[in-house]
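ok trying again, last paste got cut off:
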Amino acid sequence: MKKTAACLFMVFSVLAVFLFANIEALYALPQLGAEQFLDSMPHRTILLFGRTMIWTQPSSTVIVFLLGLATIGFGVFFLSSSARQQSRAYWGAGMILWGLGALSAGISYQAFGYELKCAGRTLCLFTSKFEIAYLLLTCFSIACFLFSAAYASARGNERRALIRFAVIDCIVYTALLLAGAILPIRFLISYEGFLLLIGGNFVVMFVFALLHRKKHGDRLSKRMIAIWLVFLLVNIGYFAFLYSGVSQTLYQTAGVWFNENDFFHVLLIGWMLMIFFLLKNTLRDSESNP
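nice, full thing came through this time. structure:
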């Protein structure tokens, strides 16, 4: 019953974004014209569903869609092989939601950013409903990871506390995001707002794995610690590439499009592969890892 309610909550929350988001008055900052948008990136005209559309960042689209589909595939593996291990079931659900979020992001940030945010407008919009849905799906994904961590790295009161935290945190963020989309409030539907409100959850999972490793010395906790440390390095790599200016130099001087998001997505694909190989045989509830 609780899982059904959680699924309905997620479905209706995503639907609410597409039905009620009111983002037409939020323009990109600094202001960006439609032609400027296209001039800043590779694009091509395609025919899709009988309609002529502009496909932006074709190579980036392939990379992010590969990330999304691979992550969904890994998630299906963990979910289908859960064998009543709650940590595996929730981890699998989390990866599926993460993959769906990546696909939603790719539709707007990469493939159809012009169509969703600029087409028919003098100025481009700040965001799109697909980008807001991406934030929401990623929030749900992280909540599932927290549930998985609760079963893999905690017991008793600690487990119940982590589960309550995951539920409350997810509900609060969803409410804030929907409020930000409907009112609208730019910060609440921004990636910066997401990082501030949700980013700390990765630290929570790292700390729980660290404490469980110290107490029980099990192999799973050691691998979870490695996973979250590598995720930190992936994010550091993203910002290092972003501020290096390499992507602009490549595009302006060599005509090669490979920006910071592409670099980040390639690193995330590697991270997902690492997760699969480290956890495919070891992820299970803490009662099974004495």
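cool. The beta strands are 43-48, 51-56. The chain has a mean pLDDT of 95.
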